[in-house]
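User: Run a structure prediction on this.
Assistant: Running it now.
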Amino acid sequence: MRIVLSLMAVLLLTGLIGCNEPPPPQQAATPEHITPGAAQLDEYLPLLQGKRVGLLVNQTSQVAGQHLVDLLLANQVNIVSIFAPEHGFRGDHDAGAKVSSGVDSKTGLPLLSLYGANKAPSAEQMQALDIVIFDIQDVGVRYYTYISSMHYMMQAAATHNVAMLVLDRPNPNGRYLDGPVLDLAFQSFVGMHPIPLLHGMTVGELALMIKGERWIDQAAQLDLTVIPVANYQRDMPYSLPVPPSPNLPNDQAIALYPSLGFFEATPLSVGRGTPYPFQVLGYDKFSVGDFTFTPVATPGAALNPPLKDIPSQGQDLRQINAGGLDLSYLITWQQLFSEHNTTFFNAPAFMDKLAGTSTLRQQIEQGLTEQQIRASWQSELQTFAGQRQPYLLYR
């Protein structure tokens, strides 16, 4: 296993544990100051010479406005195939929408889906490769499925003796370490690893941990290289240059996503089918707040959103100072639903998969306070903070 470190990359140090208050404002790092792994060609192009290369990438795999596929082709890299995760290679598929295999219209390269029936590459697909590259912008929330696709690719690479190269990118929620640690009894594609909801790690760090903790079979034989982000610390504010998926269009949605993602297991709308997904909450029968909106079908983002074409009322969170995991929204809406004798978690099994445990849902239904709920996962967070320490690449 190799970690290619630039001069500015540093090792170790932990993040904030169990903190739901945003840290004091800092000067935002700009893309020209932070250099993702993909932009450091001198560090990894030598690893690709004479190799048959596969790429697990999407629309976020950009270097100075150029897609990594085009950049590598311009550098005479022998790309054999492109693998696409949830939302597709171009990032224009709604959450859960089928991603089909085919041919990339621009390059003519085979485009192979890793979302849907086949979440892992086939033996035949892997045998055509010498090395596979993962370069996708994550948002640092366990139930965001790009890290699950990375896991399956790591497993395939280990099984078929294919080298794996992870080009690291910043975690916009990297300053937080919070939420329940996943119980493997609730393992699914929206939660594959025994890590907190907000794990505070980049994909490169997480790849090192997946290998080091042997969360894949034959982990020891995986030839893994990580190119770290230069000029980066995990507490730096970072504005993503490309939306990571159709319903996380801006920094505010990404900041609210850890808290609002759970509402996908309730009857509420989180704004899918509006110009502000994951920045509002609303319901059509009773409400917390007086902000009104009507979800509609939006091709590529929400063809059949919850409460489609139904006027809804609730909370406008577009201007709040969001950050970390805030349970107050779930608790407040659960109390309102309880007062109306209406089921709040109408998809309890899905809620438990998102949470990685049934305990969080039960605690909210039982009326525990946010402070009581937070206290229940502090011991596991402390244990995880020590467990992740050997794999951290940034201060």
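The chain has two domains: 2-243+384-391, 251-376.
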